[in-house]
Amino acid sequence: MDAPRSPARLAAALTERWSPRVVAELEDVYVKVAKVEGTLVWHRHDDEDELFYVLKGRLRLELEDRAAVALGEGELFVVPKGVGHLPVAEAECHLLLIERKTTRHTGDTTIAQTRSLADQLRPLP
Amino acid sequence: MDAPRSPARLAAALTERWSPRVVAELEDVYVKVAKVEGTLVWHRHDDEDELFYVLKGRLRLELEDRAAVALGEGELFVVPKGVGHLPVAEAECHLLLIERKTTRHTGDTTIAQTRSLADQLRPLP
């Protein structure tokens, strides 16, 4: 990355839902943006924490064995490793995500929306 | 972290300048907020990348051996490990930082504003 990037602008420019794209890397971590709407799928990452930060809109995280978390615009939350979660966006929502590079998109579950790392590393608009 | 947190609100509530505070952790990484104004000090982190994300205002990063980078509101930039840098804020600026937990505040340099990790881990308002 040679120049500054705006996650909010890059997320807004995405055309596909639930298809995260890498905007920055540091150490063994990727910073990604995503545009989401609707419900993804229950999944867990056994070995990786996952940070959700709402750039625009609202996100609900249904969590296994604990109360759901409602994230408003500008709020962040870390889903600890091993905790099953279901991201739900009642309306279009733009996210910034921080994850270890090894983190698979939909964790232990594979669905039509599951994106490979190669997909997530495609150049941004 | 049991509840969502708003980095922008937490950064705005800080009273001390150049005194980062941890708002989230995942894996070996801390996410911090800081309120800055003026000039910090030239320093480098030999082994750690450092991500700067401007929540409010503007930040200039003077960089060793390369052109300075001007970050506007909502923009992020990663200073690669080993690259000397000088953060400059002409006016009050609120930042979100992503760093490895081992990263020392002012890197290889110690000044009056240098903050210990214990300082950075104090409970937030």
Automatic annotation (TrEMBL), chains A, B:
InterPro entries: cNMP-bd_dom, Cupin_2, PKS_Associated_Protein, RmlC-like_jellyroll, RmlC_Cupin_sf. It comes from the Bacteria. SUPFAM superfamilies: RmlC-like cupins. Pfam families: Cupin_2 (PF07883). Residues 10-77 form the Cyclic nucleotide-binding domain. Signal peptide: none annotated. PANTHER family: 16.7 KDA PROTEIN IN WHIE LOCUS (PTHR36114). This is Cyclic nucleotide-binding domain-containing protein. It comes from Geothrix rubra.
